[in-house]
Amino acid sequence: MKSFINVDDIGRLDKALAEAMEIKNDRFKYQCLGKNKTLLMIFFNNSLRTRLSTQKAAMNLGMNVIVLDVNAGAWKLETERGVIMDGDKSEHLLEAIPVMGSYCDIIGVRSFAGLTDREYDYAETVLNQFIKYSGRPVFAMETATVHPLQAFADLITIDEYKTVARPKVVLSWAPHCRALPQAVPNSFAQWMNAADVDFVITHPEGYELDPVFAGGARVEYDQMKALEGADFVYAKNWSCPGVTRPDDYGKILSRDMSWTIDRSHMAVTNNAKFMHCLPVRRGLIVTDDVIEGPDSIVIPEAANREISCSVVIRRMLEAM
Ligand SMILES: NCCC[C@H](NC(=O)CCC(=O)O)C(=O)O
Ligand SMILES: NC(=O)OP(=O)(O)O
């Protein structure tokens, strides 16, 4: 595998899930594979899970790991071409990327959407520069439009916790105080569309996800109706994707607290499991009793990030 961005990069999902289980049963099975190989993780944004689980996965595979927090100690990086660099940015990404590539064998990139220029974000401008100029296999650790390591971990978790062959999975928008990217719902929709599940998305008008990721998925604007009979409730906030309202790209369109997942929402489901990628803001996305309740699987979901990442890095190492 040369890059890991979209669901197609992983190939057959049943095979990927089997590899995930193999690694979960013996995390150190392939510890010789990464000997003398180095993973470089580059963070333009904060992280807890991705940082720790990716490092753990790489260490399980015997790799060395270096981490660069671009905003904490590195030169500030210019990402645009054609600018006169007389501001606070001392180095251009186009020099920095091949330099970084020379010190490692695989690169993971976290670079969130700026949420001001849809075209720039949806072209995955930063990620694609890493792919083009690093000379290394690159995987997304949440970039402008995708978070595939999360979606793969979510798929593993659903596969582990499902009680019926084809579960009903509902992705529900929920309110938040900040404008958040669309990467998590985009990837979740893309992966659920590819998986053998009954997938429904619910959100207020204006939050329609890009059809590149969510095309073909059923959208139900009545949240309670969408949640009826659900086996999994996947809550997430996202800002306006700018599909039906191009002028509102990246904006908060609704703060409707009736969308916060509470006991009354869970009551109409089929004893659904509650999922969220974390970090989650209680009281906005979900109530304390739901996230702390017996049907909340957010902790095993996060734990599966180590597993999804192990499968991806293993494939990249084997392809070298
Ligand atoms: N990688 C997991 C989610 C990251 C990001 N959440 C955030 O930025 C939340 C920050 C806050 O709640 O202040 C997102 O939604 O894409
Ligand atoms: N879910 C997730 O990616 O978490 P972090 O932002 O903490 O890495």
UniProtKB/TrEMBL annotation:
Residues 2-160 form the Aspartate/ornithine carbamoyltransferase carbamoyl-P binding domain. Residues 184-305 form the Aspartate/ornithine carbamoyltransferase Asp/Orn-binding domain. The keyword Transferase applies. The keyword Nucleotide-binding does not apply. N(2)-succinyl-L-ornithine binds at residues 142, 176, 236, 281. Its EC number is 2.1.3.11. It holds the Pfam family OTCace_N. Coiled coil: none annotated. Carbamoyl phosphate binds at residues 47-50, 75, 110, 147-150, 277-278, 305. InterPro entries: ArgF'-like, Asp/Orn_carbamoyltranf_P-bd, Asp/Orn_carbamoylTrfase, Asp/Orn_carbamoylTrfase_sf, Asp_carbamoyltransf_Asp/Orn-bd. PANTHER family: ORNITHINE CARBAMOYLTRANSFERASE, MITOCHONDRIAL (PTHR45753), ORNITHINE TRANSCARBAMYLASE, MITOCHONDRIAL (PTHR45753:SF3). Catalyzes the transfer of the carbamoyl group from carbamoyl phosphate to the delta-amino group of N(2)-succinyl-L-ornithine to produce N(2)-succinyl-L-citrulline. Is essential for arginine biosynthesis. Belongs to the aspartate/ornithine carbamoyltransferase superfamily. SOTCase family. Homotrimer. This is N-succinylornithine carbamoyltransferase. It comes from Xylanibacter muris. The gene is argF'.
